[in-house]
Amino acid sequence: MFPSDHHNIWDEHQWEAHINEMSRRHEHLRELIESEPRDHPRWLTHIRDFPTKLDAVDAYIEEELLLEESYFPFDDQVDEDEEEENLFRDEDDDPAGDWDPEENGDLFEEPGEGEDVTDDEEEEDLESIFEDIFDEEEQQESSFDYASLENIAIYTDARDLSADLLVFNDSKPHYMQHPGFIHLVSEVLHISTKLAAAYSMGFDLEVLGANIAYCKKALERANLTLLHLQSLRETPLNQEDYFELHRRLFELRNNIAIHIQETRNLFRDQF
Known about the structure:
The protein is mainly α and about 270 residues long. Helix content is about 70%, strand content about 0%. Helix 8 runs antiparallel to helix 12. The longest helix has about 30 residues. The radius of gyration is 26 Å and the shape is globular.
């Protein structure tokens, strides 16, 4: 927790502990969903049920996100504060109730003719101030533009890699007969899921720690997947497929690490 005005803000470590606890509680639910044998994961079913590999990936990620829903610990505090405020508020209490239009003027009164709100010099100063503010906002948005999940390059890279792995089901079906390759696909899909979960938490200060925590889980998955990929170098992958997958996964892992650092900087800057 943080002192002063940010005493209710969780950092990435507190969110990570909370998410781990929620995952442990949902483990039974996951076991029910993953009731199929390990060599027949759900994404294999999606390959048959959806027209494109990207559709299959998106369907799997959407299912996984349902299990990643987290409880926002500050929601109850907000509700309690609102209830307490309403409890002590008089029904006839009106912020504008004591306003006397004859004494103080109309609340929505337009300035009279010949009355300037500011003089020309003050107006120019205000315009200059607002231009500076808007310029700063545009610069921040351009360097950290997360208006859409598709703008997150690491997510689209992970999603595309997942879909390309599913293509091997058609082009090289013997890959899918190898348990190690099936595990590789599952791990890459989990990377995409964790990154999507990070985005779903948002970039507001109150939940930015959760965003970072999910990205760290994606980074951990990427590191483990790189190690697992090495075991598939000779069987079942051929040399060309191995090096291409290693290159893409290696770049994805590095970019996730950079993204985490950038998000941490954003977290610190908002204090």
